[in-house]
Amino acid sequence: MKQLFYLFILFAFAIMTSCEQQQKKIILDPYPETNKVDQTDDYFGTIVADPYRWLEDDNSEETAEWVTAQNEVTFGYLNQIPFRSKVKERLEQIWDYPKYGSPFKEGDNYYFFKNDGMQNQYVMYKQTSLDAEPEVFLDPNTFSEDGTVALSGLEFNKKGDYLAYSISKSGSDWSEIFVMEVATKNLLKDQLEWVKFSGMSWKDDGFYYSRYDKPEEGDELQAVNEFHKIYFHKMGTSQDEDILIHKNDDFPLRNYYAGTTEDETFVYMSESESTSGNSLYAKKLDGTQKEFTLIAEGFDNEYNVIDNIENKLLLMTNENAPRWQLVLVDPANPEKVNWQVIIPESEEVLQTVSLIGGKIIAEYMKDATSVAYIYNYEGNKIGEFNLPGIGSLSGIRGKKDEDMAFYSFTSFTFPSTIYKYDAANNSSEVYRQTDIDFDIDAYETNQVFYESKDGTKIPMFLVHKKGLKLNGKNPTYLYGYGGFNVNITPSFRITSLVLLENGFVYAVANLRGGGEYGEDWHEAGIKMQKQNVFDDFIAAAEYLIAENYTSPEKLAIAGGSNGGLLVGACMIQRPDLFKVALPAVGVMDMLRYHKFTIGWAWASDYGTSEDDEEMFKYLLGYSPLHALQDSIAYPATLVTTADHDDRVVPAHSFKFAAALQEKHQGENPVLIRVDVKAGHGGGKPTSKIIEEYADEWSFMMYNLGVEPVY
Hints:
CATH architecture of the domain at 32-93 and 438-704: 3-Layer(aba) Sandwich
Number of helices: 12
Helix content: 10-25%
Shape: globular
CATH class of the domain at 32-93 and 438-704: Alpha Beta
Largest sheet: 8 strands, mixed
Strand content: 25-35%
CATH topology of the domain at 32-93 and 438-704: Rossmann fold
Number of strands: 39
Distance between the termini: 36 Å
Structural class: alpha+beta
């Protein structure tokens, strides 16, 4: 009896302790007081206040002090989440497995990238044959102690005995180029600076690349990028000796890229003034041409060079083909009446084209998943490229005169697997596959189609545990992008596994503005049609609730860059629909985005506040910074950005966070996390990725009332 009494007391104490832990609330420190200035702008007679304009100056002491104060509040909150360290430990545990990239051949050697598990950057290995012992060829982890200097691009010369590679620091878009001798791994004296939005395209003993003039000191990360130029660099010379190939002083806001065909027969030049549409020029490199020949003019359509077939260029284009087609063009007779259609437009969207073993392999997208077909050079379909399931085919790497190639395939619960392909027999075999610490078979992926506000059918992928109960209580993470012709296809994300094993529904909506159904789908979500994108995302949330997957109290939304804009706009338009919002590196000031770095190039999707009064009013209506209203209870929000983001400058997130903290009413925390020595996302070291996701997932779980299983 006495033992039963003591057991009862212990049990009651445990219950009380558990209740106290559940009821214990995190103490949120007061938000830093953000100074407001008397700044206004006149747009077509409408006066718009911009009281946080001073936060655009990322070099000022005041901005630095504001960032420090905000981070103190944010990390003070995050540090109190009781399971945050366990989430981070699980991310580290599940992340720690070997990851490989597809092999590729250059000269007489094979190369591949590998990460042993927790390395900050992938390491490049070299093999003299596929059976030979790999040796470390280039290790970006040696570029810096903290892993914040990353390899951002590489290109071998035709013989494969020299490598030009570029690096970026702290996630910035600015790059530096170096040249390495393959046999000795010695660096030459070549070092090229102020390179941005550029490749490295070889011709004999040098290469073409693009750069800007050196910016004013202090303006490197925010000044408008103007007067892009193409240069030719000869190995062993200084950058001052580089030959200027092309510039255009009449149009400072245009970008130029030069590429060469695999056999170096042609150099071609692409001219663009936005993220979509380009003019195309070409020139033979046998010395018979001094000037470029115009192949296609204007910026309404896209023209992408695949390679040359003898003296003609193979182009992918969406001119008169919103879902793309493949054409053959003779630069000596470039008039469009002479263009030969090799693969016409079809119902599926043509994504990429590879020339392997004398054949054309065309990768298509059907309802946001990959399918592929094989054609001869005359355009006759001769087979289907067999894929292992519903997912995403990535980068068939091979040579047009060799039968062997490699590619990878992945899906939401299918880790990236490398396949070796034999073009002669149209057969594939697994080349490299890795195991992870996760029961993949316990989860399933389904694709559903729901109606948006105007009745348009929108596809959405849903990933969750098998046997999920549709009781409206499942925590759900809804992700979207919806812009710039970008396709969101099935991919394996280690970070999402932590959500799945904690009972989340992982939902990915294929919104208009992307390219999942071609250019028409893209155009249905740009400029004066941008609200369609937000409607599509809101309708996705409403579908998940109506079908009893989840409820508003269990629903989180997330997106980055243009997806950060998406999250910002939707959390403002429907604050009642979401419990948590995670806008990352978002475009939040739609009236001024075009005034920073490369922002002017996004006008083809967004329009600008200076176009005309109608466009201005449309942008003002949904711009997250300006659409916030007083005394509204917004979702629990964790804005994330980084100090070296020179793609979407951090001022967007700074100003939005300040305005959100001013206007928000309620107990939900609205915080900003500012990473240091990091940028828009590219090249971010593993350690920083894990830290960021540990914070985001912990914030989301805590505010959704999810207790992790760890």
